[in-house]
Amino acid sequence: QVQLVASGGGSVQAGGSLRLSCAASGRIFSINAMGWYRLAPGKQRELAATITRDGTTNFAASVKGRFTISGDLAKNTVYLQMNSLKLEDTAVYYCNARGIITQGTTFDSWGPGTQVTVSS
């Protein structure tokens, strides 16, 4: 079973930065995509940033130009660098990974969530 461990959440003032890390472990043949989804109070869960195996990235419109996602292929790890944080970025951030365990078996795993709080 694929497990995800995340770190880097916390509290920061508006304009500050945080870096989230997420590592996948277990029987993994390949990872097709990893990224972060966030759930803010009173809002629907949304994609924050993802990166695919071939390096394609996707960002929420609200974070473009401020967030950067990257991965360490050797460690099955993804990083989310969050700069110029805004109050609206306050949310619980969930790491997600999708891929292949074995022939014919795929996985879609989620981390426990890490709180990011931005204050004025």
Give a written overview of the molecule.
There is one protein chain. With 120 residues, the chain is mostly beta strands. Helices cover 0% and strands 61% of the residues. The strands form 2 sheets. Strands 2, 4, 5, 6, 9, 10 and 11 form a 7-stranded mixed beta sheet that branches. The chain has a 4-stranded antiparallel beta sheet with strand order 1-3-8-7, with no helix packed on it. Strand 4 (30-39) and strand 5 (46-52) form a beta hairpin. It starts with a strand and ends with a strand.
Over all CA atoms, what is the radius of gyration? 14 Å
Let me know the largest β-sheet. Answer: 7 strands, mixed
Averaged pLDDT: 95
Structural class: mainly beta
Got a strand count?
A: 11
- The global form is elongated
Helix content: under 10%
Alpha plus pi helix count: 0
Terminal Cα span: 41 Å
Beta-strand residue fraction: over 45%
Sequence of secondary-structure elements? EEEEEEEEEEE
Low-confidence stretches: none
